[in-house]
Amino acid sequence: MRIVVVGGGIIGLSISREFHKLGYEVVVVDKGEIGKGASWVAGGMLAPQSEGLEPGIFLDFCLESRDMYQAFTKEIFVDTGLDVGYWKSGIFCPAFSLEEKVQLLQKLTMYKNLGLSGEWIDREDLEKRFSSLGEDIVGGVFYPEDAQVDNRLLMEALTLYCREYNIMAYEHSKVEKIITSNGKFEAVRTDKNYIDGDVCILAAGAWSGEIADIPVFPIKGEMSAVDIKKGELDMVFFSSKAYLIPRKDYSRLVIGATEEKVGFKDGNTVKGVLKLLNGLIQTFPHMRDRNIQEMWYGYRPATPDLEPILGESDIEGLFYATGHHRNGILLAPITVKVITDLIHKREKSEYLESFSYKRFLK
Ligand SMILES: Cc1cc2nc3c(=O)[nH]c(=O)nc-3n(C[C@H](O)[C@H](O)[C@H](O)COP(=O)(O)OP(=O)(O)OC[C@H]3O[C@@H](n4cnc5c(N)ncnc54)[C@H](O)[C@@H]3O)c2cc1C
After folding, report:
1. If one looks up domain 2-82+151-216+304-360 in CATH, what number appears?
2. Residue whose CA lies nearest to ligand 1 atom number 22
3. pLDDT under 70 in the chain at which residues?
4. For the residues of 100-166, what is the DSSP string, one character each?
């Protein structure tokens, strides 16, 4: 069976890899280079608790994927020889006011009631660990199970997998239309050619709504990175001001991220970068002298309820794997599982009911 995957981001490439392992013929189509898109842009946090997700099916989905991550990255290492920087560093959420402290403590209690771990750390204890701390920080909550992955290394590894195992990738080929015959998927028409197959998986990130009639739209995010000393920070800081992600094996602190509904409006803005850098120095004032390494931006694939669209479409043979919004890096392993179980094993995960496109048909 031949599977056509539209979109070579983390979702498309992870799905392609799994189907290739299962013995399918896989073709990936991307309007640019594979391995870029939002997946290259992201921070790589695996952060369901730090994100403050409310109890429910979406939190369960995120927690299950977080639990799968170590094995997912280990398998990729075995396949490609690339360590993609999975790091269970834990994520610390600082409170910048007493009001924020109350909110964070409420979330902590909520997670404890669900049997999840986390602890409050007072400013006094933080001062023993960090030489300079923003003066407004009153303490914060540490979630030891939240983690990170180096998403750029992960995209390099998934791209390498495609190249090494001869998964056919049509790059710089923009899918313009899904072609059907008698309600069944037949081919995709790109700006260059037709690519046919038995099954198509739409994983075109923030652009998915341009290809199929589903409500996926971009939420822009700007990012930056500065120099830090290797090992200077040993956990992620995630706050209302910014999030700060130290990479494990090299001297880089990734700072994220703004959120704006401005469509596909390319470029870094003065206000966006100022917000990020102010967030940095409000957390660590001594970092005002650090060199800026890079500024970049990208587009989260959002849906009206900010949860993904997964599974069958109204076209036989066309499946959706998109709309992962702020958590697409986190959700790659579980997305691969529910999509391959559906197509390969014909097993329908309970999650698919909740994340069906049908919830938007009213
Ligand atoms: C600033 C920022 C920070 C983020 N931080 C995190 C984080 O810390 N943790 C986390 O879990 N998530 C994070 N995310 C979210 C995460 O990056 C996304 O949810 C995830 O990357 C989506 O993956 P994807 O494969 O669906 O999309 P993408 O990676 O965007 O890939 C989609 C691909 O489809 C291709 N494509 C689009 N249209 C067409 C077409 N017509 N024809 C052919 N190809 C097409 C694109 O070129 C692209 O390569 C962040 C996102 C942003 C923007």
Report:
1. 3.50.50.60
2. 328
3. none
4. HHHHHHHHHHHHHHTT---EEEEHHHHHHH-S---TT--EEEEETT-EE--HHHHHHHHHHHHHHTT
